[in-house]
Amino acid sequence: MLQSIDTRELIALDGLGGPIRGTFHRPQVRNSHPQTARNVRTPGILFLNSLSLPRAATGDSAVHWADSCAEWGYPSIRLDLPGLGDSAGEITTDLLDLINSGGYRSIVAANVDELVERMGLAGVVIIGHCAGSVSALYAAAASRECKGLILMDPYFHLPQMIRPPMRRKLSEWARKSKIGGAASDIYDRWRDLLLLMRGERLPGNANFQLLSSWKRVATTGMPILLLKAPGLKTAGTKSRVGQFDYLQHVTKLAGSKSQVTIKLIEGTDHSFANRVGRAAVRQQIGSWLERYFPLAGSEESAKGATKPTRARDDQRDCIKRQRVSARVGCAAEGGSI
Amino acid sequence: MQGIQFANHLPEHAGYFEVPGAHLYTVLHEVKDPITRVLLVGPFASQRHNSYLPWVRWARFLAANRIEVLRYDYRGIGESTGVFDEMNLKDWSADVQLLSSWLDARSPHVPLLLHGLELGAIFAGRAFHAGIADGLLLWSAPADANKALRSTLMRWVSLEQIFKCAVERRTASDYIRELESGSPQEVEGYLWSTRLWQESFEFSLPAGLATEETAASEYQRPVRIVKLAKDAVPLTNGGTPAHDEFKDFNWLFAPNMEWIVANIPASPKKVSYASIH
Known about the structure:
The complex is a heterodimer of chains A (337) and B (277). Chain A is an alpha/beta fold and 337 residues long. Chain A has one domain: Alpha/Beta hydrolase fold, catalytic domain (Rossmann fold, 3-Layer(aba) Sandwich). Chain A has ten helices and nine strands. In chain A, strands 1-2-4-3-6-7-8-9 form an eight-stranded mixed beta sheet, with helices on both faces. Chain A is globular. Chain B is of the alpha/beta class. Chain B has two domains: 191 residues, Rossmann fold (3-Layer(aba) Sandwich); 59 residues, no CATH class. In chain B, helix 2 crosses helix 3 and helix 4 packs across helix 6. Chain B is globular. The C terminus of chain B is likely disordered. The interface between A and B is large, with 69 and 51 residues. Strand 5 of chain A pairs antiparallel with strand 1 of chain B.
């Protein structure tokens, strides 16, 4: 058996109780990219598990994105966190609680330091999807070597993994029948009214610890790319009627010096794994890396990606209303009917 | 780290195994003085992701009981290289044959068992039918590959329907009609080709493996056939992410491991390896 092949290498990092397994995607050396020469330090791209999925992610989409980053010249690593995928460890508590309380913060931060040391990286950009974005954000606040963040459909509240059966049935009824749909709209309006009465106060189930990490990271001016999939009954990056607008909130929290870019990925679902989604994510990551982490000597883009635009404008631009599917039982699943 | 327990773990060696046009990702759960070896032929495509954690735990459970295990990803899936939509059932069938040969050649020589789950059970069953291995364990083996694909498709469609309004919903029949008219369809991030769909009808479990009785009379080698029910989610289709993966599967693992220990002969039979193409 081989430990490495042409473009990839299997790696093991130090865990607290056993090895942490991962795949290293070697940066491609191209004539047009002298920055990949050995004496030039480049930032690495680190992909974390999306909730309980193995490191390849839905439809092997993370493999595709890591391959792309390596092709552009960025060393890319996909890791299985302890207790997930091929890494050692048994999760003995609710995984979502573990993640939401920052259970992976210290180990990810330690992994980042180890990668920087072992590979001679100029820091690391951490990419997390859904619950993975929560761990990414916590780790970014804990590691001086984290230089950037890509958060895909992050959430800033404390979701329930298992919804009560009655709630699930109500949701199904609301989606499948006209009367149910109308009832759902009324319910949304009622919740919207409650939101208005609350003013800008955060909901009771907000993840205050995570929001604090966000503020600490974003106010430093660390480049952050936030990718959003279309949601149920939402337009653009706006939240659903009756639900607290966390994106608007975190944008405000980030302050005037922040470098937060928010992009809506249309035509996909929460996994971003379909052909449209994975291509659009690839393009957005490429543009963003080119802008904030340009590789030395890359006058031309090898990514086929368009020039990036400032992010916050997208909240106004992306108004196309679309309903798409999402993975059932996902951490970010909302509480509306 | 709170919330995560680290038991004494046995050596696990991840590696790439070269096959024509691709590299298979493999993990060998190495055992000193093994009593037998098992090749795990796992669930297919998107089902791999849902069942990964209990599947790894099963491999560790076997290794802890002196049974050496090799598990792997099919060509074009997971950590293996290759393009999924360019592969076919014969390619994935060949993976079983190649890895069986490699595992069987390890020292010391001990009996080899094939264990397949769902579509993997068909691959394992066909390899066993061709003379490979000293024993066979099947979990939820469908009669043919199309039934496995159909089951995955039904699950995908039901997930999609939950989040779509009536006019946007596509039924399983819609997907099948498109596939049969030559249009590839995306199912949980994998592009299913018309060729894959069509060949899946002909790719069946050997008739002798329909029941343990027929298998006993036809093969004279131990065969165990287990039908998994809903309590085996997410090893079978369904389940809630981050919830079902961590449940206790010892009720399933222990009796199957005991069957392996009790039924796989100490001296492996000499069987001639035949082509399974």
